[in-house]
Amino acid sequence: MTNEVSQEQYAESLFGPDEVLNKVTASILEQGIRDISIVPGYGRLLTLLVKSMRAADALEIGVLGGYSGVCLARGLDKSGRLVSLELRPEYAELAHANLRMAGFGDQVEYRVGDAQDSLRQLEEEGRKFDFFFIDADKGNYPNYLEWALKLARPGALIVGDNTFMRGKTTDASQQGNAVARMREFNERIATDPRLDSVMLPAYDGLAIARVKESS
Ligand code: DHB
Ligand code: MG
């Protein structure tokens, strides 16, 4: 036995408790939902990225209980807006209640249903975004990336959670559809000429890409 903690645990221990996000997590567990929210360190990164680029319009795909929604909304200024796409109405309701609790209820719009239908709708409405957070069904990540590129303002950031899929992505014996599509997503993040990108290998992997101004 050693007293060793992981580098991720050490990094998290530096930060004080976050009462609002703790309440979000508690509400997810109270509903009997498995808590697969973004990890706290990446939540802080979302806030920092949204704030640094002064994003006016953010879009997230997959909301669960609103943890990432709170992190994204924290980075926006008062006039900033978040559109959140979610398949399950009960998740969208829980997330909206949590965004209200956090003081962002009026800045977020939920669209319930198949995300690709909502994305098509947003395109028809001529909506554009400066920030995308993809955290939904892994088998559609390449499609969501393509939609993000369509709806992006020049210089927009596209962030994708769980690029390692708990080790499946790097395990060559894993050949299922979702993992194959995640590998495709990761390769496109790295090689698409329209993007400047980085892959963060901590936690379950996070992709961050910036849409080039000229694309
Ligand atoms: C898991 C984690 C996630 O963040 C997610 O979006 C989906 C699944 C998981 O750990 O299983
Ligand atoms: Mg995730």
Automatic annotation (TrEMBL):
Keyword Methyltransferase among record annotations: yes
SUPFAM superfamilies per UniProt: S-adenosyl-L-methionine-dependent methyltransferases
Protein name: O-methyltransferase
Protein keywords: Methyltransferase, S-adenosyl-L-methionine, Transferase
BP term (GO), one: methylation
The keyword 4Fe-4S belongs to this UniProt entry's keyword annotation: no
Domain of life: Bacteria
Top EC group: transferase
Enzyme Commission number, as recorded: 2.1.1.-
InterPro entries named among the record's database cross-references: Cation-dep_OMT, SAM-dependent_MTases_sf, SAM_O-MeTrfase
Molecular function as annotated in GO: methyltransferase activity
